[in-house]
């Protein structure tokens, strides 16, 4: 048969890991596993674990001891005994969804000195030892906090233990009414009595219960049914008190019963002197026994007002249990009318405001506790123990809300950082629109920084703020780049516009330019012919041709070429001349007209000479070919 391992924190099934540990499929906690794989041992361990998960620690201890009878070296059995002796219960944190240890049986002895804890480490493998030590450190930390709180509690004379509510009907038991009457009777005689509805108030219960058990000289265990004596929390109280007696403490445990027989008491209670409440001398006998153990009466002043406060407080918290918030608020207001400094009443009003029926539900608050005026007053008027508890609640709520807010802001940051555009368009209106979008996004990121700074105590917040600032730098870089493109485009448009304005508003006539250039061309043409072309260029040409051209032809030709050159140059220059701020300097270019004319004429003459020369060559070749053909035909004839 396959072995099913159960989680020690939530009871879920365990999945085996490669490192020899297990992981809960429900809560995800890492778990140590039994060394012995025997089915019987595993079933006993699972049974014991079920008892412990239900806070039935005595039955759990019995089952773990049965395992050790079969396998003395089983570390899980020793660990289970260790957890049960300290009353360790793992409670789900609704904010982090993890299970954290709380203790129902704190002790002045360090968990590291416990014999079963030492045995666990002795028999476990190295990997499991690391996990056991980690879990033990968490438990030791919780116990130190609880011991610190318990040290601030006032001592009691008598501890009254009983079953408050029936598990089936969820109604108050007869025991609770009898206990309330007995509490009033004993307090009227000057004894300070630990009575849960009045003594626990708000805050963590275990430090108060532990302190009361340690300080009380007498414990009264009251019951009207045998099963009520074995009720988990009742048995948890009297078994711890009995253990102190067994260890030599000078204390007295008195079972008190009604509508049942003394023989129906649990075996561990049967050895103590029990009293039947139906006996006419019950109350006198009880007070005599208490007076023998308590050598002095507590210095407690009971007056009408304080008793009324207690009564209203009790009824207020009972109304909260029934979720009758309006009625509960009325009771707490009655308390404050008697005592405006009653911190528990303010705490009750806080629970009414939050619509919660159990004080531990305060950690589910969707607002920071310092935003509630009732919370501030509860802290202001609380004693040291209650103030410590309230501050712990405040810290847990802050941690949970900061975590929630951090994740929401992180998701928002991730979404906003996705679309930081780096596209560079050439359309200025499109670029301006993109800049506007980037500026909006920059404002949003800056807003996120401010919101992150509201949770600056959260450990990962500085990292996110740095990331936000990096994004803002990228946005600024993008904005500057796009703005530069816009500026460049605008500057180019401005230059083009200025040019257009010169063309339309400052345009000057091109006639003087035309006349000057053509005149220079016409005059310089013949002069170039007389002094350069005819004396120097023609002789070169005549070397290749055997006929002469009249000089008049060159004078006329150069006259025409000069005019054409002037016209061409004035056409090339006129646009710049028309739009130039100062056109006069461009007129100087007219001196180039003769040069152009000369070059043009020289090229024409040389080209002409070259053409003529080529014609001569072709004629010579043709003549030679024809002559050769004639000679050949003659010879042949």
Helix/strand structural class = mainly alpha
Specify the overall morphology.
elongated
The number of distinct β-strands equals: 10
The N- and C-terminal alpha carbons lie at a distance of 134 Å
**What is the average of the pLDDT values?**
78
Our count of helices gives: 23
Helix content percent band = 55-70%
DSSP strand content:
5-15%
- Which sequence of strands runs across the widest sheet? 7-6-8-9-10
Spans where pLDDT lies below 50 across 5 or more residues: 297-305
What does the largest sheet look like?
5 strands, parallel
Question: How big is the Rg?
Answer: 55 Å
Keywords:
5-stranded parallel β-sheet, 23 helices, 637 residues, 3-stranded antiparallel β-sheet, 10 strands, mainly alpha
Can you give me a brief rundown of this structure?
This protein has 637 residues and is mainly alpha-helical. It has helices at residues 39-53, 57-70, 75-85, 115-123, 126-150, 174-188, 196-199, 206-215, 226-229, 232-246, 267-270, 282-293, 304-321, 325-338, 343-354, 373-381, 384-416, 428-453, 461-505, 511-542, 551-579, 584-587, 592-636; strands spanning 14-16, 22-24, 30-31, 88-92, 99-103, 158-161, 193-194, 218-223, 252-257, 275-276. The strands form three sheets. It has a five-stranded parallel sheet, sandwiched between helices. A three-stranded antiparallel sheet has the order 1-2-3, with no helix packed on it. A two-stranded antiparallel ribbon has the order 4-5.
């Amino acid at each position: 048969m396959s072995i099913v391992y159960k989680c020690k924190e939530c009871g879920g099934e365990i999945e085996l890991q490669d490192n020899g540990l297990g992981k809960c499929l429900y809560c995800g906690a890492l778990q140590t596993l039994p060394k012995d794989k025997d089915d019987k041992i595993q079933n006993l361990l699972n049974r014991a674990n079920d008892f412990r998960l239900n806070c039935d620690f005595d039955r759990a201890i019995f089952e773990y001891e049965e395992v050790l009878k079969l396998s003395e070296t089983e570390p899980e059995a020793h660990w289970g005994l260790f957890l049960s002796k300290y009353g360790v219960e793992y409670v789900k944190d609704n904010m982090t969804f993890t299970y954290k240890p709380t203790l129902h049986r704190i002790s002045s002895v360090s968990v590291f000195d416990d014999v079963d804890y030492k045995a666990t480490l002795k028999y476990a493998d190295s990997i499991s030892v690391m996990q056991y030590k980690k879990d033990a450190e968490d438990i030791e930390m919780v116990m130190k906090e609880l011991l610190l709180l318990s040290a601030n509690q006032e001592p009691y004379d008598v501890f009254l233990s009983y079953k408050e509510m029936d598990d089936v009907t969820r109604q108050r038991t007869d025991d609770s009414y009898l206990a309330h009457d007995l509490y009033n009777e004993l307090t009227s005689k000057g004894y300070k009595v630990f009575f849960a509805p009045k003594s626990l108030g708000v805050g963590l219960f275990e430090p108060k219960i532990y302190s009361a058990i340690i300080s009380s000289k007498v414990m009264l265990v009251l019951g009207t049914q045998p099963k009520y004596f074995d009720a988990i929390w009742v048995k948890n109280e009297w078994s711890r008190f009995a253990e102190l007696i067994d260890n030599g403490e000078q204390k007295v445990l008195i079972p008190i019963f009604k509508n049942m027989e003394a023989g129906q008491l649990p075996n561990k209670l049967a050895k103590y002197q029990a009293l039947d409440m139906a006996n006419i001398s019950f109350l006198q006998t009880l007070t005599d026994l208490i007076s023998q153990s308590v050598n002095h009466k507590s210095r407690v002043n009971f007056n009408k007002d304080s008793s009324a406060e207690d009564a209203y407080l009790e009824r207020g918290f009972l109304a909260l249990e029934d979720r009758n918030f309006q009625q509960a608020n009325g009771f707490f207001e009655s308390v404050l009318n008697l005592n405006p400094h009653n911190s528990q009443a303010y705490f009750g009003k806080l629970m009414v405001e939050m619509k919660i029926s159990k004080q531990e539900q305060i950690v589910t608050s969707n607002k920071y506790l310092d935003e509630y005026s009732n919370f501030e007053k509860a802290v202001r008027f609380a004693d040291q123990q209650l103030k410590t508890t309230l501050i712990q609640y405040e810290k847990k709520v802050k941690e949970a809300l900061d975590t929630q807010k951090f994740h929401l802001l992180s998701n928002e940051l991730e979404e906003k950082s996705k679309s930081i555009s780096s596209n560079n368009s050439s359309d200025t209106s499109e670029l301006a629109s993109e800049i506007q979008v980037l500026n909006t996004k920059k404002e949003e990121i800056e807003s996120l920084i401010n919101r992150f700074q509201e949770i600056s105590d959260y450990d990962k917040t500085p990292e996110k703020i740095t990331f936000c600032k990096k994004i803002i730098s990228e946005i600024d870089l993008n904005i500057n780049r796009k703005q530069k493109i816009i500026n460049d485009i605008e500057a180019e448009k401005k230059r083009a516009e200025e040019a257009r304005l010169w063309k339309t508003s400052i345009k000057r006539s091109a006639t003087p330019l035309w006349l000057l250039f053509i005149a220079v061309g016409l005059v310089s043409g013949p002069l170039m012919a007389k002094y350069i072309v005819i004396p120097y260029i023609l002789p070169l040409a005549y070397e290749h041709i055997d006929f002469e051209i009249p000089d008049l032809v060159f004078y006329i030709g150069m006259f025409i070429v000069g005019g054409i050159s002037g016209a061409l140059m004035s056409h090339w220059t006129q646009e710049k001349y028309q739009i130039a701020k100062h056109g006069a300097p461009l007129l100087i270019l007219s001196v180039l007209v003769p040069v152009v004319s000369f070059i043009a004429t020289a090229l024409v003459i040389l080209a002409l000479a070259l053409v003529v020369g080529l014609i001569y060559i072709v004629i010579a070749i043709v003549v030679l070919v024809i002559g050769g053909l004639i000679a050949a035909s003659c010879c042949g004839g």
